Amino acid sequence: MVKLEMQGITLAYGDKKVVEDITFQVMPGEMVGLVGPNGSGKSTIIKALSRVVTPYSGTVLINGRDISRIPRRELSLLISVIPQIPLLPSAFTAFEIVLMGRNPHLGLFQYEGPRDMDIAWQAMEQTSTQCLAERRISELSGGEIQCVVIARALTQETQAILLDEPTANLDISRQIEILDLVKGLCRKDKLTVVAALHDLNLAAHYCDRLLLINRGRVHAKGTPIEVINAQNLEQVYGHGSYVYTHPLSGLPAVLPRVDSSRNSSLNK
Amino acid sequence: MSRKQLEMHHTGPAVPAVLYPHRHGRVYAILGLLVLLGVMVAFATTVGSVQIPLSTTSSILLSKLPFVNMNPTWTSALETIILEIRLPRVILAGLVGAALAIAGATYQGLFRNPLADPYLIGVAQGAALGAVVGFILPIDWQWLGLGTVPLFAFVGALLSVAVVYTVARVGKVMPVTTLILAGVALGALLSSIVSFLIITSEEQLHGIMFWLMGSFSLTQWSEIKFVLPYVVVGVGVLLVYARSLNIMQLGEEQAQQLGINVEKLKLILLTAATLVTAAAVSFVGIIGFVGIIIPHAVRLIWGPDYRFLLPLSVLVGAIFLILTDIVARTVLAPSEVPIGVITAFCGAPFFLYLLRRRTKVLF
Question: Do the Cβ atoms of A117 and B20 come within 8 Å?
Answer without folding.
Answer: yes
